Amino acid sequence: MHSQTLKDTYAAYIACLNRQDWEALGDFVGDDVRYNGERVGLAGYRQMLERDFCAIPDLHFVIAQLIAEPPHIAARLTFDCTPTGELFEVPVNGRRVKFTENVFYTFEAGRIVDVASVIDKAAVAAQVLKP
Amino acid sequence: MHSQTLKDTYAAYIACLNRQDWEALGDFVGDDVRYNGERVGLAGYRQMLERDFCAIPDLHFVIAQLIAEPPHIAARLTFDCTPTGELFEVPVNGRRVKFTENVFYTFEAGRIVDVASVIDKAAVAAQVLKP
Lengths: 131, 131
Fold this sequence. Notes:
homodimer, alpha+beta, six-stranded mixed β-sheet
């Protein structure tokens, strides 16, 4: 897949997440998707995202940086949101927090089959516990 | 710069870090390098690395994944080490910990001018505080 095509596919995936269009998630994510080394599968991946939106009702994915070398994508995602209760074991309780995620994806046949993510959870703790 | 040339330059940069060859750091890192949005400069960047090796005498950078789209590189780095005292405000005290870093670099004229990193600090806390 061409680099720009892969980026377009990734942008469509992020748009799918942002409109919480879980019925379409399988268009972008493989049935046997792995997340940080664990096979979670499409159903487990969807559950993970649904839990994220439950904890963060105003969750919105913003692509700050995107680089592609097919079949791989790396994205720097930024979040600016108000989680209702606990997030990453930090009692955020509706405060506004900003954090980033740097994440690698591997695509096969146009769908994500592997995700290797690091979320800056420490930034959330720093903003809430040591503001 | 060609994608493979950029990867070779990056591998040489990581080798430079692993042998703590601070005199050569300027071959790979620009004078005005920025780290997570802050201009730290070459001297500040070197200090940061020297502090890392002081806290983690057996620090060794391993490239687990590397994707290039010139002038950008994204790397997933893995660490398996025994920090002597505190690391990321966690009292590791010589225990063995494993963690990852997902990091983006921007190159100009063959040198790194911008670094956007997320280190999985929460993984270290989880291994030490909740083993």
